[in-house]
UniProtKB/TrEMBL annotation:
The lineage of its organism: Eukaryota, Metazoa, Ecdysozoa, Nematoda, Chromadorea. Keywords: ATP-binding, Kinase, Nucleotide-binding, Serine/threonine-protein kinase, Transferase. Gene3D superfamilies: Transferase(Phosphotransferase) domain 1. This is Serine/threonine protein kinase. It comes from Wuchereria bancrofti. PANTHER family: MITOGEN-ACTIVATED PROTEIN KINASE KINASE KINASE 20, SERINE/THREONINE-PROTEIN KINASE TNNI3K-RELATED. SMART domains: S_TKc (SM00220). It comes from the Eukaryota. Transmembrane segments: none annotated.
Length: 195
């Protein structure tokens, strides 16, 4: 049975049974069995997450719900060319649906460069840094402190492969689970950063 999808149109939530097909990424907030034919690493990760979840299911469900609400509060109000867009919410299993980054996270692309011995062109570095800076500037204008800037959270739509002459770059910030709204006085609650 397919999960029921709750979509968000910027003003209200609604259920959509016959939606247009779009590629989205699921940010799973609770363990979901990977299914037949899954990689061994996916099955191992699921088993570890499920075991942890079962130790205290109520606490983990509450944590997943709070993370979902936090990320929804941030993403629902944002629209920027360098910030991943919220596409919807799946209540069972609990997951956020966000734009799919076709090239994945920046850290994987940088690892490809490292393994191949290729060097990034200066224009690619500048464009990437500029796009991330524009996203952060937009967040700060909306009184949101990002708190988790790392290559794993910079998602890529366009990025040149090693040894390419192409310099076209499109990156967006993702993962707003620990972002916080700042107070008018400039402060915010909590600590930031993940490993």
């Amino acid at each position: 049975m397919a999960p029921e999808i709750m979509r968000y149109n910027g003003e209200q939530e609604y259920t959509e049974k016959d939606a247009n097909v779009q590629d989205v990424a699921l940010k799973m907030l609770e363990p979901v069995e990977p299914g037949l034919g899954a990689r061994v690493s996916s099955v191992s990760a699921y088993k570890a997450a499920y075991t942890k979840w079962q130790r205290d299911p109520l606490q983990n469900a509450c944590r997943a719900y709070c993370t979902c609400r936090q990320e929804l509060n941030v993403l629902a109000s944002l629209q920027h060319s360098h910030i991943t867009a919220l596409m919807g919410v799946c209540p069972r299993p609990l997951a956020l649906l966000v734009e799919l980054a076709p090239l994945g996270a920046l850290n994987h692309l940088l690892n490809n460069y490292r393994r191949s011995g290729a060097r990034l062109r200066l224009s690619v570095i500048q464009d990437t840094a500029s796009q991330v800076a524009k996203a952060l500037e937009y967040l700060h204008e909306h009184r949101i402190i990002y708190r988790d800037l790392k290559c794993e959270n910079v998602l890529t739509w366009r990025f040149p492969p090693p040894f390419s002459t192409i310099t076209d770059v499109l990156v967006k910030l993702g993962d707003y689970g620990i972002s916080r709204s700042s107070f008018p006085s400039g402060g915010a609650k909590g600590f930031g950063g993940t490993e």
